Amino acid sequence: MSNVIRISEAASVAMHAMVFLASESGRVVPSKEIASMLGSSEAHLAKVLQRLAKAGLVSSTRGPKGGFVLRRPAREISLLEVYEAIEGQLEETKCLLGRPICHGGKCIFGDLLKQIDQRTKKYLTKNKLSHLASVFKG
């Protein structure tokens, strides 16, 4: 089944992992625990967390008590920032066929794609990790 909004598995894992870390209130969380909570492979999660660390969103600690923690307060980090750390800048949807068959004329979808893009960007920008942390709390 196809989705209207396409978010890669890596971006989805990143956003969920970051919200989970936000729910842990500054506790250093082992990657194994995050992977288990998300039902993700630890290897895939490790690659995602590495990209988040490179973007300055998480810090890692090595060793038996090691793991990951948010680098900044959850109230300062939006889902858009997490998404863009993985996927790059969120861009406007172009022709769904990948080529301008309408030749600049009217699209069969009207302004639907533009509306979806705007609402998605607004949602990702507005929602901070702190707003969503309750999803993982009992």
Short key terms for the protein model shown above:
single chain; 138 residues; mainly alpha; Arc Repressor Mutant, subunit A; two-stranded antiparallel ribbon; 6 helices; 6% strand
What can you tell me about this protein's structure?
The protein is mainly α and 138 residues long. Helix content is 46%, strand content 6%. The chain contains 6 helices and 2 strands. Strands 1-2 form a two-stranded antiparallel ribbon. A hairpin with a 5-residue loop joins β1 (58-61) and β2. α1 (9-23) runs antiparallel to α4 and α4 crosses α5 (112-126). The mean pLDDT is 90.
User: Which structural class matches the secondary elements?
Assistant: mainly alpha
Q: What is the share of helical residues? A: 40-55%
The H/E string reads HHHEEHHH
CATH architecture of the domain at 9-89 and 128-136: Orthogonal Bundle
CATH homologous superfamily placement of the domain at 9-89 and 128-136? Winged helix-like DNA-binding domain superfamily/Winged helix DNA-binding domain
Strand content: 5-15%
State the end-to-end distance.
31 Å
Number of strands: 2
Global mean pLDDT = 90
Strand arrangement in the largest pleated sheet: 1-2
Contiguous uncertain segments of 5+ residues: none
Largest sheet: 2 strands, antiparallel
Number of helices: 6
CATH first level of the domain at 9-89 and 128-136: which class? Answer: Mainly Alpha
Morphology call: elongated
**Alpha-carbon Rg, integer:** 17 Å
CATH topology of the domain at 9-89 and 128-136: Arc Repressor Mutant, subunit A
